[in-house]
Amino acid sequence: MTPTQKFDSFNDEEAIRDIRKRLFSLQDLEYKEFHRKLLPTIDPDRIIGVRVPKVRALAKELRNTPESHAFFHALPHRYFEENNLHGFLIEHMNDFDEAAESLDALLPYIDNWATCDSISPKTFSKHPDKLLAKIDEWLSSDKAFTARFAIGMLMKHFLDERFEERFLDIVASVAHEGWDSENEQQAVGADGSTTYNNDYYVNMMRAWYFATALAKQPDATLPYIEQYRLDQWTHNMAIQKAIESRRIDSELKAHLRGLRASSERRMR
After folding, report:
1. Phi, psi dihedrals of residue 179, rounded to the nearest 5°
2. E strands in the chain
3. Rounded distance, CA 46 to CA 111, Å?
């Protein structure tokens, strides 16, 4: 049962407005200007400019209060920080099913990498079997950031002692046909800024996953690179991220540099 179901009788719009006022009271305009450049998929007017630790502190203060349960009714939220707050409130849920159902309600409204990557309910680590089932469900979504979130959960919870080689196949299969270069995933906006197709963020997470897997599970992961089993863009980005990683030794980095793919090389 979700929080919204348990508190259907509590829908205090004044409480929801008060939460928004509290977020604005934490506004840092310089941070807003800096942060909006990192979030090209969001209308700048939807960014208040609140640093993440302060949003997390507010979530901790509001957890399990009538105000927080009213806030769960407020989807879709207008502001970037409201989505972050919603996600951070979910992190405080101790029941796996409650947290998963609440995420199911929120994920379709996530429209940026920062919110997507910052949410990580603690209860997920205690229920790996249930989490894998949800990951499979989220990966089948047609929402780019829901798929990205699923890959992020595989990276966080299933690259160490719970790792199985089949997870590499799962991430590799989340592919987008016809993308052979970065230019096909990004464009220059009218103001000269770089904008991205949302699917770019799925492939970026795939690359991040394989770079991390090269550090944590190199024996299982390296054949994916040596055999060119990923699409070219994700292949090359995974190599770039791996080379930038401090967790990968210089010998493996040198080997990876020689495996970069060009348009002349046929990718599988």
Report:
1. -105, 110
2. 186-188, 194-196
3. 11
- Looking at residue 36, its amino acid is R
CB of 60 closer than 8 Å to CB of 92: yes
What's the CA gap between 102 and 87, in Å, rounded? 9
Indicate yes or no: pTM above 0.85. yes
Tell me the Cα Rg of the chain: 20
Query: Residue 104 class from Cβ within 10 Å (0-12 exposed, 13-18 middle, 19+ buried)?
Result: middle
Task: Of 149, 117, 147, 150, give the one whose Cα is nearest residue 133.
Answer: 150
For 132-170, write each residue's pLDDT tens digit: 999 999 999 989 999 999 999 999 999 999 999 999 999
Q: Exposure pattern of 231-246 as b/e (b: 16+ CB <10 Å)? A: bbbbbbbbbebbbeee
pLDDT (tens digit per residue) in 165-183: 999 999 999 865 433 344 3
Q: How far, in Å, CA of 221 to CA of 218, rounded?
A: 5
